[in-house]
Design a protein that fits this description.
Region (Disordered): 299-318
Strand order of the largest sheet: 6-5-4-7-8-10-9
Domain HTH arsR-type: 1-90
Strand content: 15-25%
CATH architecture of the largest domain: 3-Layer(aba) Sandwich
Structural class: alpha/beta
Organism: Cystobacter ferrugineus
Bound molecules: S-adenosylmethionine
GO molecular function: DNA-binding transcription factor activity; transferase activity
Shape: elongated
Pfam families: HTH_5, Methyltransf_25
CATH superfamily of the largest domain: Vaccinia Virus protein VP39
Order of helices and strands: HHEHHEEHHHEHEHEEHEHHEE
CATH class of the largest domain: Alpha Beta
Length: 318
Protein backbone atom coordinates (compact mmCIF):
# COMPACT_ATOMS: atom_id res chain seq x y z
CA UNK A 1 0.00 0.00 0.00
CA UNK A 2 2.85 2.34 0.95
CA UNK A 3 4.50 1.72 -2.41
CA UNK A 4 1.28 2.55 -4.22
CA UNK A 5 0.86 5.77 -2.25
CA UNK A 6 4.45 6.76 -3.08
CA UNK A 7 3.85 6.05 -6.76
CA UNK A 8 0.63 8.09 -6.84
CA UNK A 9 2.40 10.91 -5.00
CA UNK A 10 5.34 10.81 -7.43
CA UNK A 11 3.07 10.85 -10.45
CA UNK A 12 1.13 13.79 -9.05
CA UNK A 13 3.73 16.06 -10.67
CA UNK A 14 2.78 17.04 -14.26
CA UNK A 15 6.43 17.41 -15.43
CA UNK A 16 7.24 13.96 -14.06
CA UNK A 17 4.26 12.51 -15.96
CA UNK A 18 5.46 14.19 -19.17
CA UNK A 19 8.93 12.71 -18.67
CA UNK A 20 7.48 9.28 -17.97
CA UNK A 21 5.46 9.42 -21.17
CA UNK A 22 8.50 10.53 -23.22
CA UNK A 23 10.85 7.80 -21.98
CA UNK A 24 7.96 5.39 -22.57
CA UNK A 25 8.10 6.34 -26.27
CA UNK A 26 11.91 6.28 -26.78
CA UNK A 27 15.17 5.75 -24.94
CA UNK A 28 16.36 9.26 -24.07
CA UNK A 29 19.31 10.86 -22.31
CA UNK A 30 19.08 13.74 -19.84
CA UNK A 31 19.91 16.48 -22.37
CA UNK A 32 17.29 15.13 -24.74
CA UNK A 33 14.65 15.11 -22.00
CA UNK A 34 15.67 18.68 -21.05
CA UNK A 35 15.27 19.82 -24.67
CA UNK A 36 11.83 18.17 -24.85
CA UNK A 37 10.22 19.33 -21.62
CA UNK A 38 12.02 22.68 -21.46
CA UNK A 39 12.90 22.68 -17.75
CA UNK A 40 16.30 22.99 -16.07
CA UNK A 41 18.65 20.00 -16.18
CA UNK A 42 18.82 19.81 -12.36
CA UNK A 43 15.04 19.52 -12.20
CA UNK A 44 14.94 16.83 -14.94
CA UNK A 45 17.67 14.87 -13.14
CA UNK A 46 15.66 15.04 -9.92
CA UNK A 47 12.52 13.71 -11.67
CA UNK A 48 14.48 10.92 -13.35
CA UNK A 49 16.05 9.87 -10.03
CA UNK A 50 12.62 9.73 -8.42
CA UNK A 51 11.11 7.66 -11.26
CA UNK A 52 14.10 5.32 -11.16
CA UNK A 53 13.80 4.85 -7.39
CA UNK A 54 10.17 3.77 -7.92
CA UNK A 55 11.40 1.29 -10.56
CA UNK A 56 9.24 2.91 -13.19
CA UNK A 57 12.20 3.64 -15.48
CA UNK A 58 15.60 2.03 -16.00
CA UNK A 59 19.01 3.63 -16.61
CA UNK A 60 21.60 2.33 -19.13
CA UNK A 61 25.04 3.67 -20.08
CA UNK A 62 25.94 3.83 -23.75
CA UNK A 63 28.65 5.76 -25.59
CA UNK A 64 29.33 8.08 -22.64
CA UNK A 65 25.63 8.92 -22.13
CA UNK A 66 23.07 7.65 -19.65
CA UNK A 67 19.80 6.68 -21.31
CA UNK A 68 16.44 6.24 -19.64
CA UNK A 69 13.57 4.03 -20.74
CA UNK A 70 10.31 2.70 -19.33
CA UNK A 71 10.74 -0.33 -17.10
CA UNK A 72 7.09 -1.19 -16.63
CA UNK A 73 5.40 -3.30 -19.28
CA UNK A 74 1.80 -4.17 -20.04
CA UNK A 75 1.80 -7.09 -17.57
CA UNK A 76 2.72 -4.89 -14.58
CA UNK A 77 -0.07 -3.97 -12.08
CA UNK A 78 0.86 -0.30 -12.53
CA UNK A 79 0.36 -0.41 -16.29
CA UNK A 80 -3.15 1.17 -16.29
CA UNK A 81 -1.60 4.21 -14.62
CA UNK A 82 1.12 4.43 -17.26
CA UNK A 83 -1.52 3.97 -19.95
CA UNK A 84 -3.40 6.99 -18.57
CA UNK A 85 -0.19 9.07 -18.70
CA UNK A 86 0.49 7.90 -22.26
CA UNK A 87 -3.05 8.72 -23.44
CA UNK A 88 -3.34 12.11 -21.69
CA UNK A 89 -3.64 15.12 -24.03
CA UNK A 90 -0.25 16.39 -25.25
CA UNK A 91 -0.78 20.02 -24.23
CA UNK A 92 2.90 20.96 -24.47
CA UNK A 93 3.52 19.35 -27.86
CA UNK A 94 6.08 16.94 -26.31
CA UNK A 95 5.35 14.11 -28.73
CA UNK A 96 5.76 16.28 -31.82
CA UNK A 97 9.15 17.50 -30.50
CA UNK A 98 10.08 13.88 -29.76
CA UNK A 99 9.31 12.90 -33.38
CA UNK A 100 11.59 15.74 -34.58
CA UNK A 101 14.34 14.69 -32.18
CA UNK A 102 14.20 11.07 -33.36
CA UNK A 103 14.31 12.24 -36.99
CA UNK A 104 17.39 14.41 -36.22
CA UNK A 105 19.06 11.38 -34.58
CA UNK A 106 18.37 9.31 -37.70
CA UNK A 107 19.65 12.09 -40.01
CA UNK A 108 22.84 12.46 -37.97
CA UNK A 109 23.45 8.73 -38.25
CA UNK A 110 22.93 8.71 -42.02
CA UNK A 111 25.02 11.84 -42.52
CA UNK A 112 27.78 10.44 -40.36
CA UNK A 113 27.84 7.28 -42.46
CA UNK A 114 27.89 9.34 -45.65
CA UNK A 115 30.65 11.70 -44.55
CA UNK A 116 32.84 9.91 -42.10
CA UNK A 117 32.54 6.13 -42.24
CA UNK A 118 35.32 4.19 -44.01
CA UNK A 119 33.63 4.44 -47.44
CA UNK A 120 34.61 8.11 -47.42
CA UNK A 121 38.09 7.51 -46.09
CA UNK A 122 39.22 4.47 -48.08
CA UNK A 123 41.88 6.52 -49.85
CA UNK A 124 43.33 7.70 -46.54
CA UNK A 125 43.27 4.18 -45.15
CA UNK A 126 44.92 2.87 -48.30
CA UNK A 127 47.71 5.48 -47.98
CA UNK A 128 48.15 4.81 -44.27
CA UNK A 129 48.44 1.05 -44.77
CA UNK A 130 50.66 1.50 -47.83
CA UNK A 131 53.03 3.66 -45.77
CA UNK A 132 53.73 0.55 -43.69
CA UNK A 133 55.11 -1.29 -46.74
CA UNK A 134 58.81 -1.51 -47.47
CA UNK A 135 59.88 0.40 -50.63
CA UNK A 136 58.86 -1.92 -53.46
CA UNK A 137 59.59 -2.13 -57.17
CA UNK A 138 56.22 -2.56 -58.84
CA UNK A 139 55.05 -3.35 -62.37
CA UNK A 140 51.56 -2.28 -63.44
CA UNK A 141 50.42 -4.62 -66.24
CA UNK A 142 47.94 -2.85 -68.57
CA UNK A 143 48.05 0.51 -66.77
CA UNK A 144 45.57 2.21 -69.11
CA UNK A 145 45.24 5.90 -68.23
CA UNK A 146 47.20 5.33 -65.02
CA UNK A 147 44.49 5.62 -62.36
CA UNK A 148 46.03 2.79 -60.34
CA UNK A 149 49.61 3.59 -61.44
CA UNK A 150 49.65 6.96 -59.69
CA UNK A 151 48.25 5.42 -56.51
CA UNK A 152 50.99 2.77 -56.57
CA UNK A 153 53.64 5.42 -57.21
CA UNK A 154 52.68 7.27 -54.02
CA UNK A 155 54.30 4.53 -51.92
CA UNK A 156 56.37 2.36 -54.28
CA UNK A 157 60.11 2.90 -54.81
CA UNK A 158 59.53 2.60 -58.54
CA UNK A 159 56.64 1.71 -60.84
CA UNK A 160 56.98 0.37 -64.37
CA UNK A 161 53.64 1.06 -66.05
CA UNK A 162 53.02 -0.97 -69.20
CA UNK A 163 50.37 -0.70 -71.86
CA UNK A 164 50.23 -1.28 -75.61
CA UNK A 165 47.94 1.68 -76.15
CA UNK A 166 50.04 4.84 -76.74
CA UNK A 167 47.06 7.19 -76.26
CA UNK A 168 46.31 5.69 -72.82
CA UNK A 169 50.00 5.96 -71.92
CA UNK A 170 50.05 9.65 -72.90
CA UNK A 171 47.17 10.33 -70.52
CA UNK A 172 48.84 8.35 -67.75
CA UNK A 173 52.09 10.29 -68.27
CA UNK A 174 50.22 13.60 -68.13
CA UNK A 175 48.48 12.64 -64.87
CA UNK A 176 51.76 11.52 -63.28
CA UNK A 177 53.35 14.83 -64.37
CA UNK A 178 50.46 16.82 -62.94
CA UNK A 179 50.92 15.05 -59.60
CA UNK A 180 54.70 15.50 -59.71
CA UNK A 181 55.37 11.75 -59.49
CA UNK A 182 58.89 11.03 -60.77
CA UNK A 183 59.23 7.35 -59.90
CA UNK A 184 57.28 5.95 -62.87
CA UNK A 185 58.68 4.53 -66.11
CA UNK A 186 56.06 4.22 -68.84
CA UNK A 187 56.58 1.42 -71.31
CA UNK A 188 54.68 0.75 -74.53
CA UNK A 189 54.85 -3.03 -74.90
CA UNK A 190 52.87 -6.24 -75.24
CA UNK A 191 52.24 -7.95 -71.90
CA UNK A 192 52.89 -11.35 -73.51
CA UNK A 193 56.57 -10.57 -74.21
CA UNK A 194 58.20 -7.82 -72.18
CA UNK A 195 61.63 -6.32 -72.72
CA UNK A 196 62.36 -6.42 -68.98
CA UNK A 197 64.96 -8.21 -66.87
CA UNK A 198 63.89 -11.36 -65.00
CA UNK A 199 63.70 -11.53 -61.19
CA UNK A 200 64.03 -7.79 -60.50
CA UNK A 201 60.54 -6.80 -59.24
CA UNK A 202 58.78 -7.11 -55.90
CA UNK A 203 55.20 -6.79 -57.07
CA UNK A 204 53.31 -7.27 -60.34
CA UNK A 205 49.73 -6.00 -60.45
CA UNK A 206 47.17 -6.84 -63.11
CA UNK A 207 44.06 -4.78 -62.57
CA UNK A 208 41.38 -5.81 -65.05
CA UNK A 209 43.91 -6.22 -67.83
CA UNK A 210 44.03 -10.02 -68.05
CA UNK A 211 40.56 -10.28 -69.58
CA UNK A 212 41.86 -8.16 -72.48
CA UNK A 213 44.43 -10.75 -73.55
CA UNK A 214 43.50 -14.04 -75.22
CA UNK A 215 46.66 -15.81 -74.10
CA UNK A 216 46.26 -14.96 -70.42
CA UNK A 217 48.59 -17.80 -69.36
CA UNK A 218 51.45 -16.12 -71.27
CA UNK A 219 50.81 -12.86 -69.44
CA UNK A 220 50.84 -14.62 -66.07
CA UNK A 221 54.09 -16.37 -67.03
CA UNK A 222 55.66 -13.00 -67.94
CA UNK A 223 54.53 -11.54 -64.62
CA UNK A 224 55.98 -14.47 -62.68
CA UNK A 225 59.27 -14.21 -64.61
CA UNK A 226 59.75 -10.57 -63.56
CA UNK A 227 59.37 -11.31 -59.83
CA UNK A 228 62.20 -11.75 -57.37
CA UNK A 229 61.96 -14.89 -55.22
CA UNK A 230 59.34 -14.01 -52.58
CA UNK A 231 57.84 -11.35 -54.91
CA UNK A 232 54.05 -11.12 -55.23
CA UNK A 233 51.53 -10.96 -58.02
CA UNK A 234 48.09 -9.42 -57.44
CA UNK A 235 45.38 -9.96 -60.03
CA UNK A 236 42.07 -8.13 -59.93
CA UNK A 237 39.58 -9.79 -62.25
CA UNK A 238 35.91 -10.19 -62.98
CA UNK A 239 33.81 -13.23 -62.15
CA UNK A 240 32.33 -15.00 -65.17
CA UNK A 241 29.49 -12.94 -66.66
CA UNK A 242 27.22 -12.84 -69.73
CA UNK A 243 27.73 -9.24 -70.84
CA UNK A 244 28.63 -10.07 -74.46
CA UNK A 245 28.72 -6.39 -75.47
CA UNK A 246 32.08 -5.94 -73.69
CA UNK A 247 33.77 -7.94 -76.47
CA UNK A 248 33.03 -5.45 -79.24
CA UNK A 249 32.81 -2.25 -77.22
CA UNK A 250 35.64 -2.75 -74.72
CA UNK A 251 37.80 -5.34 -76.46
CA UNK A 252 37.45 -7.98 -73.73
CA UNK A 253 38.71 -11.40 -74.79
CA UNK A 254 37.33 -13.22 -71.71
CA UNK A 255 33.91 -12.77 -70.10
CA UNK A 256 35.46 -12.94 -66.64
CA UNK A 257 37.27 -15.87 -65.06
CA UNK A 258 36.43 -18.65 -62.64
CA UNK A 259 38.70 -17.84 -59.66
CA UNK A 260 39.68 -21.52 -59.32
CA UNK A 261 40.74 -21.66 -63.00
CA UNK A 262 42.84 -18.52 -62.58
CA UNK A 263 44.36 -19.93 -59.40
CA UNK A 264 45.43 -22.99 -61.37
CA UNK A 265 46.85 -20.79 -64.14
CA UNK A 266 48.87 -18.85 -61.53
CA UNK A 267 50.19 -22.13 -60.09
CA UNK A 268 51.10 -23.24 -63.62
CA UNK A 269 53.04 -19.97 -64.00
CA UNK A 270 55.09 -21.01 -60.95
CA UNK A 271 53.35 -18.95 -58.26
CA UNK A 272 52.64 -20.42 -54.84
CA UNK A 273 49.46 -20.34 -52.74
CA UNK A 274 47.26 -18.18 -54.94
CA UNK A 275 44.84 -16.73 -52.38
CA UNK A 276 41.37 -15.46 -53.19
CA UNK A 277 39.69 -12.34 -51.83
CA UNK A 278 36.15 -12.04 -53.17
CA UNK A 279 34.39 -8.67 -53.29
CA UNK A 280 30.69 -8.25 -52.51
CA UNK A 281 28.60 -7.51 -55.58
CA UNK A 282 27.92 -3.85 -56.24
CA UNK A 283 24.17 -3.91 -56.91
CA UNK A 284 24.51 -1.20 -59.58
CA UNK A 285 26.98 -3.21 -61.67
CA UNK A 286 26.54 -6.43 -63.69
CA UNK A 287 30.17 -7.25 -62.83
CA UNK A 288 31.61 -8.79 -59.70
CA UNK A 289 35.32 -8.47 -58.98
CA UNK A 290 37.76 -10.68 -57.09
CA UNK A 291 41.43 -10.52 -56.17
CA UNK A 292 44.04 -13.25 -56.35
CA UNK A 293 47.48 -12.95 -54.85
CA UNK A 294 50.34 -15.37 -55.46
CA UNK A 295 53.99 -15.53 -54.45
CA UNK A 296 57.07 -16.52 -56.39
CA UNK A 297 58.70 -19.24 -54.29
CA UNK A 298 61.89 -18.46 -52.45
CA UNK A 299 64.95 -20.31 -53.72
CA UNK A 300 64.66 -23.97 -52.63
CA UNK A 301 66.52 -24.70 -49.41
CA UNK A 302 69.77 -26.65 -49.79
CA UNK A 303 69.32 -30.39 -49.18
CA UNK A 304 70.26 -31.40 -45.63
CA UNK A 305 73.93 -32.50 -45.31
CA UNK A 306 74.53 -36.26 -45.68
CA UNK A 307 75.36 -38.09 -42.43
CA UNK A 308 79.09 -38.07 -41.69
CA UNK A 309 80.94 -41.24 -42.62
CA UNK A 310 84.46 -42.05 -41.50
CA UNK A 311 86.79 -40.85 -44.25
CA UNK A 312 88.84 -43.60 -45.86
CA UNK A 313 91.80 -41.23 -45.54
CA UNK A 314 91.36 -40.68 -41.81
CA UNK A 315 94.01 -42.30 -39.68
CA UNK A 316 92.80 -45.58 -38.18
CA UNK A 317 92.57 -46.09 -34.51
CA UNK A 318 95.46 -48.27 -33.40
C1 LIG B 1 40.56 -2.05 -68.39
S1 LIG B 1 42.12 -1.37 -68.68
C2 LIG B 1 42.81 -1.46 -67.05
C3 LIG B 1 43.38 -0.17 -66.61
C4 LIG B 1 44.00 -0.17 -65.22
N1 LIG B 1 44.81 -1.31 -64.97
C5 LIG B 1 42.97 0.01 -64.15
O1 LIG B 1 42.70 -0.93 -63.38
O2 LIG B 1 42.41 1.10 -64.03
C6 LIG B 1 43.05 -2.63 -69.52
C7 LIG B 1 44.29 -2.11 -70.19
O3 LIG B 1 45.07 -3.21 -70.64
C8 LIG B 1 45.70 -2.83 -71.85
N2 LIG B 1 46.07 -4.04 -72.61
C9 LIG B 1 45.26 -4.99 -73.09
N3 LIG B 1 45.95 -5.94 -73.72
C10 LIG B 1 47.25 -5.61 -73.64
C11 LIG B 1 48.46 -6.20 -74.08
N4 LIG B 1 48.46 -7.36 -74.75
N5 LIG B 1 49.60 -5.57 -73.80
C12 LIG B 1 49.62 -4.40 -73.14
N6 LIG B 1 48.49 -3.79 -72.68
C13 LIG B 1 47.33 -4.38 -72.91
C14 LIG B 1 44.65 -2.01 -72.54
O4 LIG B 1 45.23 -1.15 -73.52
C15 LIG B 1 44.02 -1.26 -71.39
O5 LIG B 1 44.61 0.02 -71.23
Amino acid sequence: MLELTETFKALGDPTRLRILRLVGEARLNVSEVVSLVGVAQSSVSHHLTKLKALELIREERQGGFTYYSLMVDEKAPLWPLIRLAKDAPDEHGDLARLTELLQRREDALTLNEKLLEPGQSWRLWASALASLLPPLDVVDFGCGTGVLTVELARWARHVTAIDHNPAALDKARAEAGRLGLRNITFLEADLKALPLESGAQDLVVLSQSLHHVGASDRVLAEGARLLRPGGRMVVLELMPHDEQWVRSRLGHQHLGFEPAALQNAMRAAGLETPTLVAAPRDAASPFKAFLLTGTRPLAPALPPPAPLRPSPLAPRAP
